[in-house]
Fold:
Amino acid sequence: MDAMTRETETPSRTRRGRLRRSGMVVLCLLLLAGIGYAIWFWPAHPPAPNARSAARGAPIPVLVAPSETKDVPIYLDGLGTVQAFQTVTVKPMVDGPLVEVRFKEGQDVHAGDVLARIDPRTYQAALDQAVAKKAQDQANLANAKIDLARYQKLAATAYTSAQQADTQKAMVAQLTAQVEQDQGAIDSARTQLSYTTITAPIDGRTGIRQVDQGNIVHASDTTGIVVITTLQPISVVFTLPQQALPAVAAAMKEGSPEALAITQGNDGDAAGVLDRGTLAVLDNQVDPTTGTIKLKATFPNPGHKLWPGGFVGVRLKVATEQGATVVPPAAIQRGPNGTYLYVVGADDTVKRQSVTVGHEDAQASIITAGLQPGAKVVTDGASRLTDGARVTIATAGAAAAAGPTQPSAPGTASRRHRTAQ
Structure:
């Protein structure tokens, strides 16, 4: 039995070995064919590595701008939420049918304007009843005072006892208190009656009406009749990092810092100033979970460009740098050894100049060391430059058409985009 098994397995192993050898031969032939194809079709003269090598020695088109000396406002940027300056939910103070609604949704109202009326008849009757009760008690008081005068004369001549005179005196005091109590009931009834006329407590704009005429309203209702919000002025609550606290506190000591409400573009850059206002409140604590401080600015909002609930960018002016050396943000380059820029000399060659940058935003970069005012600095095309390279000053269109041949320094593209805007 074992002999037969060995005889059966031997041809099978032989066939598998032949197949492996045939596969190896085919693989070697394919490899040799690929190498031959690459050698045959490889060009005799490889192309230049890039356009920069082909144009080595030619002037590189760049855009330049002079460094300037000017006063630069220092702004801190944050993101805020627009809030109404005042918000009031108008609710009924008494129960009853709502017989009249005198405002329109979205209407501007002033404090004291009548908004709605509740059926006043029940409360008018209560007031009339209180007034009548006071008149009755006043009549009793007048009579008691007359009796007191008589008893006092009789007691003086011993025609009546002193006790009876004192009792009458106590009666007069009791009726006097009753009349004062009646006056309190009248005031309460008159107040309840006044609540049937619902007036606007503040100046503002009405929202969507919550209750229609004909409904029964109650003082315990939670929704109210309408919400009034003050839109002029309006507030924006925004946050800044806690590191900005010293600068903000110092600015508030000098007065009310200016605040700009800015709409944000699709790329996050400032697209335009919506309104100018002032900082009103600096919160009294730092949020420990986010490490930020909360601030509130007030804006006049004359054109209603700010609307409650919306998100806006806020720029807070905390100082002004006097006589600073300023260059466009696109001129600043960053490398492993720090910040630098390229200065164009009189012979149209550039020099790599290390600089120290102070405050920087989308509008300007303040150079605190390493650059003199009036120097021409490269604002576009710096990614293709080396120290001593020859350049030609081009227009914006020509520089854009040339395009960089290698990636620019980190952060340069975004700053250049903001400057172009």
